[in-house]
Amino acid sequence: MTEIRSADALTVRHLSDRPLDLGPTLAPLRHGVGDPTFTRTTDGAVWRTTLLPSGPATQRFVADGERSVVVQQWGPGAREAADRLPQLLGEDDSTDGFVAPPQAQAAARRAVGLRITRSGRVMEALVPAVLEQKVQVVTAHRAWRHLVLRRGSAAPGPAPAGLRVVPDARTWAALPVWEWHRAGVDPRRAATVARCARVAARLEETATLPGAEARARLEAVPGIGEWTSAEVAQRALGDADAVSVGDFHLAAAVGWALTGERTDDAGMLELLAPYAPHRHRVVRLLFLDRRAQAPRRGPRLPIPDYRGL
Predict the structure, then answer these.
(1) PANTHER family in the record, alphabetically (predicted)?
(2) pTM of the full predicted structure?
(3) Third-level CATH fold of 122-235
């Protein structure tokens, strides 16, 4: 990693020894269209914010060839953000021994630079995952957008309009009932976020623990189950094997992609078992290739709006 002198930003060039596909690698960190913490601008740059122990940081990523990315950082957390870049860009993600299933091999060839990111920021992955529990994703993304815009802080540096930094744990823990209500978040999910925020320091430590131990600590918090811990592991912990068991659509989609038939969670795990420890990687590839698109049955469910209750 090479630093580039800049008057207003800490700028580094990250050069990998293998292909790096910036967009798909960072895409899981975005929670819906209009996510205030993540955006792409018309010049092709990826912008994101993060809240680190040293403070908030804004990052701007620009691909510069097949293996090179130029990243600018602003804010009190700029130096720490730069130091974390190799993990964020998936340098720890190894595909040694991985052979994609036949249904995903075309995607694997096209997405040779796809990495499993490791943000290391557990609460930043955990809160949106809790908001996505047992609701339609559009509802969860709307709530995330509302809460970050209302309770987050301004992004450091010359950030695009509307970019914000996530609230800190103290803010999440102290959010009043009426704020959750305005965001359309029911009391159960709101209480889960508050419980997580009160033990945020212990949860952030999971970024340094082995995978099974990390997920066990996450799931020790009431309201955090196997699905939620997997969603966090995929983003914050760099876990290429974490499968989101309990997802409303995933098992059917994976079954359809691999066999042409829908299946349940048990069937999905059986189908993915030969690909451990790369089961999440297989799922990512299947979705990149749009194979995991099981035909819909019946009408769409209505989207509940808790703000009017």
Answers:
(1) DNA GLYCOSYLASE, DNA-3-METHYLADENINE GLYCOSYLASE
(2) 0.91
(3) Endonuclease III; domain 1 (1.10.340)
